[in-house]
Amino acid sequence: MAILNGLAFLITLAVGVVVWAMYTFEPGLLLGTPWGRVHVALLLAGAFLLGGAMMGMYVLAGWVTCRTRLSRYGRELRQARGELDRLKKQQIQEVPVIPDRAEPG
């Protein structure tokens, strides 16, 4: 997990450096958008943030799905254990008595 965290940090740092370099060294990179003229570096940063937000949504959805499945499996396991305990209580186990030995106890 530490490797993935480090990789995510490096990718974010690289995108930040590229955005800063484009904004600083190429001030004329403007694109027309419905919101007016916007620098390409800002569009790149916005696209990266939007992708990160979408990835976060997928992770959140996966986490919620996993928690739901785990709680369902836990509930089924508790029900099965309860049924097993009820069956154990209903079925009386007889201790076999060997005729040539004394009874235990």
TrEMBL record:
Q: Does the keyword Transmembrane apply?
A: yes
Identify the keywords attached in UniProt to this record, alphabetized.
Answer: Membrane, Transmembrane, Transmembrane helix
TM region(s), chain numbering? 7-25, 40-65
Q: Is Transmembrane among the key words of this record?
A: yes
**Can you say what this protein is called?**
Lipopolysaccharide assembly protein A domain-containing protein
- According to the entry, what is the taxonomic lineage of the organism? Bacteria, Thermotogati, Deinococcota, Deinococci, Thermales
